[in-house]
Design a protein that fits this description.
Layout (H helix, E strand, L loop, with lengths): L6 H12 L5 E5 L2 E6 L13 H9 L4 E4 L5 H8 L4 E5 L2 H10 L4 E3 L10 E6 L13 H11 E12 L23 E8 L2 E2 L3 E4 L3 H10 L2 E8 L4 E8 L1
Parallel strand pairs: 3-4, 3-6, 4-5, 6-7
Antiparallel strand pairs: 1-2, 1-8, 7-12, 8-9, 8-10, 11-12
Helix pairs in contact: 1-4
Length: 237
């Protein structure tokens, strides 16, 4: 990924260097245009939602922070003496993390990790969304077999977005077609930088539990928030 196709990384880097930023705009054919507030990615522990605070409190051992963005979670873990490695596919985000003091930050796609295992894998801010599509989840779990250390845990959060499709009468009307309703395509824009479209997965807890079980994993929902937002702890059966 280069700077001309990395709107989020450029926005993160600008905000870190100047304290100012343009709009990081988020587009999807399923929803109206949205905007990601950059200060959210630089929040302190005190400003994090309770679910994220709970997840950070559950971290143990050698830890991998996936899609770490500006590094807010990794910095909290570092302060607690946790051996944490932060990865992101955005070079500018990784550059920013390093400037902010994250000791181990690398440009890395989770699905390409080889030869390393971790006691805790952290995927927050709907981080399991990187799977992209429901049909890709078994492949994700097969990769997890290699990356998760024996007795390890994956901590991730997601949202059941079925409420988005509820009409005024309380009836849920899912989009037509065979695709799982939590599969969304996004594209971001920052100033004149347009990112490539990318798939993102929001998965309900029951479906996550079913697919995980079929692939040798157990899902425990350890916390729940508004709008069917939840934190899951995933371990081997």
């Amino acid at each position: 990924m280069n700077q001309q196709t990395d709107p989020m990384g450029q926005a993160i880097n600008d905000y870190w260097r100047t304290g100012k930023t343009g709009r990081l705009r988020v587009f999807s054919p399923m929803f109206e245009e949205d905007e990601m507030p950059l200060p959210l990615l630089f929040r302190t522990y005190e400003d994090m939602p309770e679910i994220e605070q709970k997840a950070l409190g559950m971290v143990r051992g050698k830890t991998l922070d996936v899609g770490a963005g500006a590094g807010c979670h990794s910095l909290v873990l570092q302060e607690r003496g946790i051996d944490v490695t932060a990865i992101d596919i955005s070079p500018l985000s990784v550059e920013t993390m390093k400037a902010r003091g994250v000791k181990k930050a690398f440009v890395q796609d989770f699905m390409t990790i080889d030869g390393q295992q971790y006691d805790t894998i952290l995927m927050l801010m709907n981080g399991i969304g990187i799977v992209g599509q429901l049909e890709s989840l078994p492949t994700f779990f097969r990769h997890l077999d290699r990356v998760l250390a024996p007795g390890g845990q994956l901590l991730c959060d997601s949202t059941d977005i079925s409420y988005v499709f509820e009409d005024e009468d309380g009836v849920i009307r899912y989009p037509e077609g065979d695709a799982y309703y939590g599969e969304i395509t996004y594209r971001m824009r920052y100033k004149d930088i347009f990112g490539e479209p990318f798939p993102w997965l929001y998965i309900d807890a029951a479906t996550l539990r079913q697919v995980a079980g079929e692939n040798g994993y157990w899902v425990e929902v350890v916390a729940e928030g508004e709008n069917d937002y939840y934190l899951a702890k995933i371990t081997t059966l």
